[in-house]
Amino acid sequence: xxxxxxxxxxxxxxxxxxxxxxxxxxxxxxxxxxxxxxxxxxxxxxxxxxxxxxxxxxxxxxxxxxxxxxxxxxxxxxxxxxxxxxxxxxxxxxxxxxxxxxxxxxxxxxxxxxxxxxxxxxxxxxxxxxxxxxxxxxxxxxxxxxxxxxxxxxxxxxxxxxxxxxxxxxxxxxxxxxxxxxxxxxxxxxxxxxxxxxxxxxxxxxxxxxxxxxxxxxxxxxxxxxxxxxxxxxxxxxxxxxxxxxxxxxxxxxxxxxx
Length: 259
Prior knowledge:
The protein has a seven-stranded parallel β-sheet, sandwiched between helices. The chain is α/β, with parallel strands linked by helices. The chain is built from eight helices and seven strands, in the order βαβαβαβαβαβαααβ. Helix 4 (102-130) links the parallel strand 4 (84-87) and strand 5. Helix 6 crosses helix 7. The longest helix has 29 residues, at 102-130.
């Protein structure tokens, strides 16, 4: 299927690795010129070079922390009028909510609620004027099924879902869609980081923790980033203009619900 994205431009945040990189690659394969953002220059340039080798589109980089004013300004300078915006920032650490400081809460809200809102605010009006826009926020399955050890993430990401629920329905008539992708367990550095935290308190190793998660999933495995990227590319496509304000859960069926 031709997704109708050739000649479009995209800003993909947190794209030096993991799910962000997978989304950037999937878009680039569809002919989208991508600007990828990340904090680590070496990792980001390596990711960009890999994308260039795998596709024939323009790939540019914007090094910086997207959760800061400077990082967002750098990204938007590199890609000032994106047709597609993929927001993504590292999730906050796990732990008992009793142990989190006020600064921990503010950091989580800034990264996973206020930063996506700031990026949307900077780009959505241009999309409206051009009569095309696709915004996808990479959040977490915890929006649907809160994870007890991820109180910071549960709170911030659910707040973003509420914001998107309202705004997405205001801009849909302009062929601008906003949706959220909610990943469960995927084969990324983030999974290994959270598994390491569990391993420290359970006297197991990281591989055992990941194997248990895979076995407990209805699919019997964890997800691969390329699967996530493919869904992201479709949500950004010309065919997805009737998908508005949705929380797309990609968790292998782990969340049990009929709704």
